[in-house]
Amino acid sequence: QVQLVESGGDLVQPGRSLRLSCGASGFTFGSYGMHWVRQAPGKGLEWVARIGHNGDKQLYGESVRGRFSISRDNSKNTLYLQMNSLRAEDTGVYYCARVISEYGDYEYFDYWGQGTLVTVSS
Amino acid sequence: DIQMTQSPSSLSASVGDRVTITCRASQNIERYLNWYQQKPGKAPKSLIFAASSLQSGVPLRFSASGSGTDFTLTISSLQREDFAIYYCQQSRTSPYTFGQGTTLEI
């Protein structure tokens, strides 16, 4: 069955860097686009970034653009999120999600990981 | 950016009730609208895609409609397991914004 498992979340000081990973199994990873979505404590969902199935089409939310970088290694079935210049407002649970297209170009997130917690604090 | 606004922000209901949640987009998103359910401490779960298509495995008491800027999610007869937070999300264009969520509580 499809599984997405995030890792790498930690307590980190403001201004430092962190890299999250999302290991995928149960499907052909290299055939699907992937996204990161985050959720601050007690808040709603915020879209962070996306990457195309072959590593192209990288897009970012305004709040992370220029600081975060999404990438993937299809040979390792792994998605990454490199987070630099971290701020307190980056604190939250980070989910990776698989995106699927139906009826041509209607995209939605059909599978999500369980999330990994990032805490940015001094 | 496209803003997504849900109403109400919270809703109290009882088992067996019929409830409707509304999502409004700040501009025309055609039918590029998805709905997700999230329970405490869990990842979101896909319910509806392309405005009205039911995700496989989702009970038929869930339905949705709309196009353009106005969308609705309806639960025809609430079950205990339906008490959760519901989010709409537009996939028309980046950034793929979510609504602020609607908490459905007893």
What does this structure look like?
The complex is a heterodimer of chains A (122) and B (106). By secondary structure, chain A is mainly β. Chain A contains no helices and eleven strands. Chain A has strands at residues 3-7, 11-12, 18-25, 33-39, 45-51, 59-60, 68-73, 78-83, 92-102, 106-112, 116-120. In chain A, the strands form two sheets. In chain A, strands 2, 4, 5, 6, 9, 10 and 11 form a seven-stranded mixed sheet that branches. In chain A, a hairpin with a 5-residue loop joins β4 and β5. Chain A is globular, with a radius of gyration of 14 Å. Chain B is built from no helices and ten strands. By secondary structure, chain B is mainly β. Chain B is globular, with a radius of gyration of 13 Å. Chain B has a six-stranded mixed sheet with strand order 2-10-9-4-5-6, with no helix packed on it. In chain B, strands 1-3-8-7 form a four-stranded antiparallel sheet, with no helix packed on it. In chain B, β4 (33-38) and β5 form a beta hairpin. Helix content of chain B is 0%, strand content 46%. The chains are: A mainly beta (122), B mainly beta (106). Chain A binds chain B through residues 35, 37, 44-47, 50, 59, 61-62, 95, 102-103, 106-110, 112-115, and chain B through 1, 31-32, 34, 36, 38, 42-46, 49-50, 53, 55, 87, 89, 91, 94-101.
